[in-house]
Amino acid sequence: MNQESKILLQGELTLHPVPVLLNYLYDQRETGRLVMVQEGVNKTIYIIEGKPVNVDSSLRDETLGRYLVKLGKISEEAYQKSLELMMNEGIQQGAALVKLGLLGPKELYRVVKDQSIQKLLTAFSFREGQYRFYQETAFVEKIYRFEFPFQLALKQGVYQYFPETCLEQELAKAGSEPIALLPGFQGRLAVFELDEQEKDFVPLIDGYKNREALAGLESEYPFARRLLYLFLLCGIAGPGQKLADSLRAVGAGEKTEARVEMFMPTEGSPEVTEEPEPEVQIKDSPDKILEFYIQLKSRNYLELLGLKPDTDDEQVENAYHELLREFGRDRFPSRMEPEIEAKLEEINTDIIKAYEALRSQERRARYLAGLKAKEEKPRPQTYLHAENFLQEGMKYVRNRDYVNAQKMFEKAVELSPNEPEYYAYLGWTIYCNPELDQEEKTQKAKDKISQAIKMNPNMDSGHVFLGKILKEQGDEQAAVREFKLAVKCNPNCREALRELESRGIKP
Question: pLDDT at position 259, please?
Answer without folding.
Answer: 65
